[in-house]
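Below sits the subject:

***
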Amino acid sequence: MHGFMWYFHEDHHQPKYANVFERNDVFFVIFAIPSIALFYYGVEGGLNYKFFIGLGIMFYGLCYFMIHDVLIHQRFKWFKNTNNKYLIGLRKAHKVHHKHLGKEHGECFGMLFVPFKYYKI
């Protein structure tokens, strides 16, 4: 997302306005199309490896949505008030990642692995 797909991801690193959607949301479509196609071709003549690759892409997309959009950015207010140290550390790490508005010099926050320095309160 910080490479050749930066065009779509760039607005995600900019200050937010009243817009519900951002260009970054196109990644849901980018991941959904091959997943759906692999589901479709993976059930022909019984389940085959294509179905399970599609399932893996779908699970990655679901994890990305739940962790990045719901937990970290709180686009949906499902886990707004949490005292969980892991979730607080994850949010802090991602905030550091967003400190840079450009694609260069951004710090990797880890999607599920949070460096221990972010657990400090």
Observations:
- The longest helix spans residues 49-72.
- The chain is about 50% helix and 0% strand.
